[in-house]
Each structure stands twice: as C-alpha cells, then as structure tokens.
Write a structure and sequence with these properties.
This protein has 468 residues and is mostly helical. The protein contains 19 helices and two strands. It has a two-stranded antiparallel sheet. The termini are far apart.
C-alpha cells in the first residue's frame, strides 16, 4: 500500500488533528442548517403583515418623528414640536435612527409617500408601512439567530432547534414587531446579548451591549440590578468601575449632539419622563393591578380611564391612607427584584442569568405601575433561553406567551388579518381572568427561582470564561 493511501498511525498527531478539525467543522455546519429552515418559515409568516397597519397610533408617531427629522435635521429630533407636527419624540435615538434610515432608503429607491400632513402615509401607502416595520423585522430574525447560536453553543443542536422555533414561531413575539410595528425587539435583542456576555464573564462587553440597549429603549433599565450584582460577584471592583464608566460614556456621547441642538431636557425626555407620562395604575396591562381592582373599579374601560396611580387633577387615585398606588407598586417590584438579585448574589456561578432576568421583567410587568400591554414582551425571549436544558420552564414559557399575546392582541386592529382574528376568537377570556393567570405565573416563577438547586448549572457545556 502506498504511503499516500495509508491510514495515519496513532502517533501521527498532525494527520489526526486535521481529520478531527474536518469532522468538527462539518458537524458545525450541519448543526446550523436547521436555522435556515426556521428563518425561511419566520420570514414567510411575517412578510404579509409588514404592509398592514396593526396599530396605527404608534405608526403615526413614527411617521411624525421622521417628518420632523427630515424637515429640521435629525439632531433636532427632540425639539418641542409645533401643534400640527404630532407628539414629541419619547424614544431614545437608536430605534428612531433605524426607523429614519429605513424610511430614507425607501424614499431614495423611488418609494412614494401618498399623503400631505396632517394626514399620514401609513393609512394609504402599504409600502411605507413596510419600510417603518423593516427594522423590527430584521431584529426579529437576528434574535432568532442569536438564540439559536446560544443554545447550540451551550447545549446541542436539538435545543438550538427548540429555541430557534420558539423565537421564530411564537405569536407573542411577532405580533409586537411584524403586526404592531413596535421596536421592542431591538432593545430586547441587545439585552439577550448583554446577559450572555454576563454569563460568559465578558464584563466590559456586557456594559457596552447594555449601553446600546438603553439607547434603544429605557425599559432595559429593569436589568440594571442584575448586572450590578452578578458583575461585581464575578469580577473585581476596578473592572466593574471601568465597565460602568464605558457604559456612561457610550450613552452620553451619542446624546451630546442632540442636547446641543434639541436641548438638554428635551433630549433626556425618553429617560426623565419615562415614569409619570401615563400616570395610571395600569395602562390596560393585565397584571396584578387590573386583577385586584376589577371588583371595585371599571377596569374594562379605555386606557385613559384607568385609575391614576396617584392623586392627580383627573380621576380618583389609588391610595391607602397617605400611600399611593405608585409607591406600593414600586415597593412590590423592588421586593421581587431584591429577592432575585439576592439569589444571584448567593449563587453567582450558578449560570441562571436568563432565568433571573426573566424574573425581573415578569415582576416588573406584574407590580410596577403604568405598565402598558407590550411590557411583558422582553420576558418571553429571556424565559425562552432560560428553558435550555430545563424542561419545566417551558410550562411557564407557554403561560406567559399566552398572557403576552392576549395583552397585545386586544389593542390591535386584529379584524384586519384573518390569522389574528382567529387567534382573538380562540381566546374568549376576560382581562381580569388573564390578569389572574399572569399573577399566578409570576408567583410560580419566583418560587422556581428560589427553589432552584444550587448544584444545577444552566448550561453544563459552558466553560468558565475570563472576566475580560
């Protein structure tokens, strides 16, 4: 037998290494193949919805913001608008910048906007609606890819397929982006990456990704206690301080040009006015407040008729003596957050970061005042990833997905789409019933977090990474 066709000897290390690398590479490529099929199905489901108006008021706001940016310059985005220019911009710059970029690309490619202010193009130009929904659509697919990659890295291809399908095919997720047209998926995607960087002990990367999430939406602030506690427990104070400085710089530097043109307080509006802009105990969110007040207040009314969370000039606020509902709600959420981060402090190496993060957002939605119907959305991708190698978590995933879907669907123009109309008719429940289920799921999740065994790491395949 010639030397060219001989099987390499056991001592022929280079030859065996080449064969091992080739086999490993082939296996890795095959493991990614199901993702292509999942993405194809995800795209097919979402594409027909992109040209349809699922919730007009947010699309009106996005269109108004882009018009003002085109008229006055993008850095004047946060300047107080004229009475006929729509509402003020109350989103941080990243999401609005992506919407503006998508709109410009549409117009530059000979796209038409068939309206004259104060009318809105989204009512008459389906292609423009698609342009406004394109950024969340892209991040929808990106979230599927990231979730699939995390599950493949930390578990195996079977879990990767399960997680990929759960992120791609869950109606509770694509109703928010492809149907409603909201940008929640953008900051949620960066939060998912933030938590994974935290899990891998990449502390500096964690702060960088978290800064981007904050620049997308201020709702990401609920994650801050977990980053502070787990980051400190997994590294040293010096590295944490450096990371925090980078975090602050990455937020401040992009905001400075807006402050110079739009004004300081106006630019900080998405952060300073995040609480109190809609001062109701719940903004139609089916949570603890809607359930507990259903027997004494008209909680079936429109969002602007909900009981105020403090005594204001309109309505009858929620009070217990001198203590307002706003104080009670924040105290209840604070208590849950304290329990969750205490669990992280006690067991910083347990690797249940996604579980703790999901607990924070479920508790935030359940007890904090002024919750809107979409605010449970971030918890769904988080608990999806928390379910890797934890089959029992998927029962909570299913329940929370149903609650999230019911919350969002009832506020959209579901009758315009046969699929959403069918889903709505298949859920003939009252809001207080769904709110009760949400509270039960929140309590169950908290119990699961507290009862989780100390010796059960979330990702057994994970290697300990450096704190770089």
């Amino acid at each position: 037998m010639s030397s060219e066709t001989q099987t390499p000897l056991l001592t022929d290390f280079p030859a065996y290494e080449k064969q091992a690398i080739k086999v490993e590479s082939t296996g890795t490529l095959l493991a990614w193949f199901p993702l292509l099929l999942i993405l194809a199905v995800a795209i097919a489901i979402r594409l027909p919805m992109l040209t349809q108006v699922g919730y007009r008021w947010d699309l009106y706001s996005f269109e108004d913001w882009i018009r003002r940016a085109d008229k006055n310059g993008f850095l004047a985005l946060y300047a107080q608008p004229a009475p006929d220019e729509g509402i003020e911009t109350d989103h941080p710059p990243l999401g609005v910048a992506l919407l503006d970029l998508s709109s410009r690309l549409y117009l530059d490619s000979a796209g038409q906007v068939n309206s004259v202010p104060p009318n809105h193009a989204v009512d008459s130009t389906p292609q423009y609606v698609r342009a406004l929904k394109l950024p969340p659509f892209i991040f929808d697919l990106l979230l599927v890819c990231i979730g699939y990659g995390i599950a493949l890295r930390e578990a195996n291809w079977r879990w990767a397929i399960a997680v990929g399908c759960a992120l791609a095919l869950n109606p509770a997720l694509f109703i928010d982006s492809a149907w409603w047209g909201q940008t929640d998926v953008i900051f949620t995607t960066f939060m998912v990456m933030t938590i994974y960087a935290l899990h891998r002990r990449w502390i500096t990367v964690t702060w960088v990704l978290y800064a981007i999430a904050i620049l997308a939406k201020f709702q990401a602030i609920a994650l801050l206690p977990l980053i502070l506690v787990l980051g400190y427990r997994r590294t040293n104070l010096k590295r944490m301080a450096i990371g925090a400085l980078i975090f602050a710089a990455l937020i401040l530097i992009p905001l400075l040009p807006f402050m110079a043109v739009s004004g300081v307080s106006e630019t900080l509006r998405p952060y300073l006015e995040a609480s109190g802009k809609y001062p109701f105990i719940t903004v139609k969110a089916d949570n603890f407040w809607l359930w507990s007040l259903a027997s004494t207040r008209n909680m079936e009314s429109s969002w602007d008729k909900m009981p105020p969370d403090s005594q204001v000039t309109w309505g009858d606020g929620i009070y217990w003596g001198p203590i307002s509902g706003r104080i009670v709600g924040m105290a209840l959420f604070g208590l849950c957050a304290l329990v969750i981060v205490a669990r992280g402090w006690q067991n910083p190496d347990q690797g249940n970061d996604y579980l703790l993060a999901a607990g924070l957002y479920v508790a935030f939605f359940t007890f904090a005042p002024e919750m809107q119907v979409r605010y449970l959305y971030p918890a769904i991708p988080l608990i999806t990833l928390a379910g890797i190698k934890r089959p029992s978590i998927w029962l909570l995933w299913l329940g929370l997905s149903v609650v999230c879907l019911f919350n969002i669907l009832a506020e959209t123009l579901y009758t315009r789409n046969p699929f959403w109309n069918f889903i709505y008719l298949a859920m003939p429940w009252h809001s207080y019933q769904v709110a009760r289920l949400e509270v039960v799921l929140c309590v169950a999740l908290m119990v699961f977090i507290l009862a989780h065994r100390k010796d059960a790491p979330a990702y057994p395949n994970s290697a300990q990474s450096s704190a770089g």
